[in-house]
Design brief:
By secondary structure, this protein is mainly alpha-helical. It has helices at 2-12, 23-27, 30-33, 37-56, 78-100; strands at 66-69, 74-77. It has a single domain (2-100), classed as Four Helix Bundle (Hemerythrin (Met), subunit A) (Up-down Bundle), CATH 1.20.120.450. It is 61% helix and 8% strand. A hairpin with a 4-residue loop joins strand 1 (66-69) and strand 2.
């Protein structure tokens, strides 16, 4: 969800500075630590549907727009971010497959 929001900000604003977060802290809040994994799978499915609509609506020049990551002190173009998150999404899918011992 963070990447989706970062990309939307990059499209809607002029080189926004994104807010970072600690993944472990987010995962250990009650909604992340105690709910069934089925809720996370549903959330990911819905997010990816919206993300695909969003990405398919973009113009080629939109992929060059950037956001600034303050902790890394680095600008990230949308096109590069998508390449990174393609890997990142597969990484998370592997975690879900291990947790549920099934293929998606």
């Amino acid at each position: 969800m963070h990447c989706y929001l970062r990309l939307k900000h990059a499209i809607l604003e002029d080189t926004p500075t994104i807010k970072d977060y600690n993944e472990s802290d987010w995962a250990n809040t009650p909604d992340g630590a105690s709910l069934s994994i089925a809720y996370s799978v549903s959330l990911i499915e819905a997010l990816h549907q919206r993300w695909c609509v969003f990405l398919n609506s973009m113009e080629p020049s939109d992929f060059e727009k950037t956001y600034f990551h303050p902790e890394r002190k680095k600008y990230y173009p949308i096109g590069t971010t998508l390449l990174l998150y393609a890997w990142h999404s597969n990484h998370h899918l592997a975690h879900l497959q291990i947790a549920t011992k099934k293929e998606f």
